[in-house]
Design brief:
- The chain is an alpha/beta fold and 170 residues long.
- Helices cover 39% and strands 14% of the residues.
- It has seven helices and six strands; from the N terminus they run αβαβαβαβαβαβα.
- β3, α4 (88-96) and β4 form a beta-alpha-beta unit.
- The longest helix is centred in the first third of the chain and has 15 residues, at 13-27.
- The chain is globular and about 55 Å long.
Length: 170
Amino acid sequence: MIVTKLTPQGFCGGVKYALHLLDKALENPTTPRPIYLMGNIIHNKTVMNEYKKKGVIVLNEGYNEDKALLIDSIKEGTIIFSAHGTDKRLIDRALNRGLNVINTVCPNVKIVHKKIMDHIKLGYDIIYIGTKRHPECEGVLSIDKNIHLVSNLADINDLIINNKITSRTS
């Protein structure tokens, strides 16, 4: 048998950051309880099961529930938004309900969001390639109505972009 060590190993920096913030919240006795996660903070069942054993409540695991209604169902505590990025309206909704909010958005995701917003301000439409209903895509799509998700080749044929910009300025 040949065993080959794959590199890189472990979680990316964004996931490590998110897990660090979750661990800090769990360790801090002043963090309002219960602690909720809006979806899985990372895509790793083993890690998620360990956090559930520690009392963390995971909302929207199947990505089918209405996230706003889930937030509205929380009476008290802390809600943690994942490294994937989140619709700002959901974060505002949680804050308006008086919940403690921890946003663990990955610094690289923040960079993508900023670049998208910069181009939207210049009048561009954005074609974003990703997976429908994935939290990262939902976060991006929530930025502006002129972001078009392409998940497969058929989506390309269905694109309707009426943008008149013909040259790139940045």
